[in-house]
Predict the structure.
Amino acid sequence: MASHPKPFHRADIDGLRAISVGVVVAFHAWWRQGFGGFVGVDIFFVISGYLISGAIFDDVRAGRFSLAAFYGRRVRRIYPALITVLLATFAFGWVQLFDDRFQQLGAHLVGAAVFASNLVLYAESGYFDASSDAKPLLHLWSLGVEEQFYILWPLAVMLAWRSRGARGVVWTLGLGFAASMAHEQFLMRINTSAAFYIPTARFWEMLAGAALAWVERRRVGAMPLRMAHGFSLIGLALLLGSFRYITEGKVPFPGWAALAPVGGAVLLLAAGPRAVVNARLLLLLPMRWLGQISYPLYLWHWPVLVLARTSGWVDGWAMLVCVGVATGLAWVTARWIEPPLRYGGDNAKKVKGLLAAMAVLGLGGLVVAWAHVPSASHARVAPITRQIGWGIPVASEAQGRACNALMPGRGALVPGVAGNDFCYLARPGAPDVALVGDSLNLSLFPGLASYGDINVLIASASEAAPFYDTTTTESFDRTRLNNWKLTNQALDYAVASPSIRVVVLSYANGDQLLRRSSAHDMTDRADPTPAPPEARLERALRRTLARLTAAGKGVIITLPNRRMGFDPPDCLTDLRPLHGPAYRHPCGEPRGGALEQAQDAYAAQVRRVAKDFPGVVLVDLAAPLCDARLCYAMRGGQMYYRDRLHLSDAGSRAVAPVLYDAIRAMMHR
């Protein structure tokens, strides 16, 4: 990793690496709730910036720095373990994954091959993104951020030194840190996914380590021991506090919260090996050993966990075995694969060979992703698995154009935000039924559009409640704050259109809105008076029903189909060549559980309001998919769900008759 003749090594930094990888692995394997182990990646960023920038500074000051040599060393450091993990994951994924996930794995392999995993994952992020547990290469986002930093940083240091010497480097450090931090804060206000994945929003974390490396090289004499002890204790406290309080879904991250783990890592590095925490904890032999295999362990642990869970091994003991397997693979990689390719021999040939191997892997992933190469299980499972995910489109491009022709300017209401607007018209002509609300209507449109005697318009938006002047979204998600404009436009169109006789209001996340611990929130833009969510929901619903009924529209409110507590592919685990005991037969969510109770609370609130509006009809979408014991995600060989909430094409056609009957009855009044 170093870029000067005598590599710099501090054994206590191996111990800090052990903490970094240890908390990440623990978070991924066991403790997702109440534990912020994901901040271990931020500690990695600081260590990387400290060590590699220090080596760059030394070489630049000595006049021996070479970009070609630097990148050659990066290739020999990063590629051997990475290629090994990618090849193994790709091969095992072909055997174990179903078509859609295998083809997604191909796309992720391309991203990993060019160190752009973070950008590929950011492009996928959104409401309909697959679960992180279904992406074996998800963790490589951090490697993408790191290597994108090292594309720019060495060149910036070299140019700064040549132009203005040490002062130029200081200015480059300071301006780079401030610009990156400002960019992160800006993105946190509009899109937390962008703040997480966009590299320039995370560069400041590596620059924090770089700044420490620069200060140490300008400092005269060793740090006083008492100060070193204080730094190490404060640093450890910051890390422990980060693990305890920066938890998923509770604290916006990265943002200002990332200062705690970054600051803790900087203080421990600054304290040095004599400090109390470094000497008594980080220098312990097990810590140093784990730190020495931290890079291959980070690479191995997530694919092992994901592929095991996908294959039906999900309990705590299974995760312990997976961590043991990943640790064994990491040791083998560090002992037998990395050294021959990293040290000694003809370095130029090694670099060329490693680059060629990575290019072949990337091209293989590209073929799989673009040509939709099937996985090994395709012949057995394709008729069922094609219903999972969004491979079967909800509607056609022509249906989308027809909808937008009815409401021109709709796209301009939320400019620059893709995937938010669901606007389709079943067939040419005037619509007589309008579906307004959120993505729940995507579950209804295919089934209703199959009826020839009604013309259905869907004008909905992601996570948007079907109420006038109401913003509903996750509190950390700023990308959907203007979706209320799409809802208002759709409702106004329905009120004004003489052809529309029935308006169907659908909202999938009412159960989340009423949960006090949920990240979902509602803002009543027409009445900002503070009130609990039940009262805000009632105000918005009454306001909407009053306008629609006053316009003479028939109104149907759908009560959502049941939310599943598992991923639908779990029902097909026994169809994989290798599988464990955790598969669901029958494939359904038990009645009366916490998920159903939360949805029932929303339904009760809707019923209380609707009873004051004669003629408003409620349709329970769960009824066709449930019996007294279970609500089914799959039954009779038909997969009814695309994901945990949205219905597949088959599921849409299963619930369509009850809604169609209600629509026809309302039209004939």
Observations:
- The longest strand covers residues 456-461.
- The two ends are 77 Å apart (CA to CA).
- The CA atoms of residues 196 and 253 lie 7 Å apart.
